[in-house]
Design a protein that fits this description.
16% strand, Rossmann fold, 2 domains, single chain, alpha/beta, six-stranded antiparallel sheet, 339 residues, five-stranded parallel sheet
């Protein structure tokens, strides 16, 4: 007699606590779980130990559970969702409902490809005001073509039974009834299960960050067709919009300076010549007046900013020139700074 095949689920593993708990509950029930992680440049969930981000945490947790993990970078496609969200945005530039629909559609494709029975997520009813209330959850399932196929183990007993529950693939009585924004039930459950090392218990998306949102809104107002390269740079430095419409980025520390050097191909660079200071990225072919403004802002954030003037190195297309300039005033910073 052939042994009955185990039910198979595709779990959306963000690297946070809730998705880890959802997977653990499924494994306890004997479900064959495969993890799926969608990564974008907008992840802000740094590992508590290595600062390597959501993808790293997903890999670590999948290894801890001994399950297969597939990581898919969806940034390029996801940018279209950010620019034109059908269901609007949250308090910043976060298109939460459209984001979930997009991710669920991708998960459905993978579920069908692998022959899995259902999708598992770590969502908690009432945890997020925009996308995790009852009406939004049902809307997301409907528009992604996954009605009845999304199991949310942490809140399942507060929701209508899924197909997996109706067909006896999982035991509804062993699912949970957590709701609301408090993390205490999840943290207690994690302790009981021996899950003690996890990052971003409440998730981490840069699009919900007000500061990042202002930068993104400004970028799209000036460059509607902005892509991955422009959006990646929004994560680093101080951002200024100058009188001629140019945008510059000034690093805040060595790590950000290194990132600006790494991702700043195609930009001019300004840096103080005779002392320590930031890397400043600026568009090419600036007017002489704008170059002086950029140099003054670079000087303002350099170690010698108390000096009457500083010498700023300008690197343009492999050639160097120098600008002697006084550091910008506080009024200039306030007038031109985006964030």
């Amino acid at each position: 007699m052939n042994e009955k095949a185990k039910p198979k689920a595709i779990a959306l593993l963000s690297g946070g606590l809730d998705s880890a708990l959802a997977i653990s509950i499924m494994l306890d029930m004997g479900v064959d779980v495969e993890a799926l992680n969608f990564t974008t440049i907008f992840c802000n969930c740094a590992s508590s130990k290595k600062g390597e981000g959501c993808g790293s945490e997903a890999r670590r947790l999948s290894g801890l559970f001994g399950i297969k993990l597939t990581v898919i970078n969806v940034t390029a496609e996801y940018i279209a969702v950010i620019k034109h969200p059908k269901h609007g945005r949250g308090s910043s530039m976060n298109p939460c409902i459209d984001c979930r629909i997009f991710m669920f559609r991708k998960a459905k494709e993978y579920m069908l490809k692998t022959g899995a029975d259902f999708i598992v997520t770590g969502e908690v009813l009432g945890q997020r005001p925009m996308s995790q209330h009852m009406r939004a959850m049902m809307l997301i399932e409907r528009e992604s073509g996954l009605e009845g196929l999304v199991l949310r183990p942490l809140s399942a007993r507060l929701l209508s039974p899924t197909l997996a529950e109706k067909e006896g693939l999982v035991d509804r009585e062993k699912l949970l009834d957590i709701k609301g924004r408090s993390r205490k039930p999840q943290i207690l459950l994690a302790s009981e299960k021996g899950i003690t090392d996890y990052a971003c218990p409440a998730g981490g998306c840069l699009l919900t960050d007000k500061s990042f949102g202002r930068r993104l809104k400004d970028l799209l107002a000036h460059i509607p067709d902005a892509g991955v390269a422009e959006m990646r740079l929004l994560k680093y430095g101080r951002h200024f919009r100058l009188p001629d419409g140019s945008k510059i980025i000034i690093g805040r520390d060595k790590e950000e300076n290194d990132r600006l050097e790494q991702f700043g191909k195609g930009y001019d660079r300004f840096q103080v010549a005779d002392s320590l200071g930031p890397v400043t990225l600026a568009p090419r072919r600036l007017s002489e007046e704008t170059k002086r403004i950029v140099a003054s802002l670079t000087a303002r954030y350099s170690q010698g900013r108390e000096m009457p003037t500083l010498r700023i190195r300008h690197c343009e297309d492999g050639t160097e020139s120098f600008i002697e300039i006084a550091p910008a005033s506080d009024e200039d910073l306030a007038r031109w700074r985006i964030d």
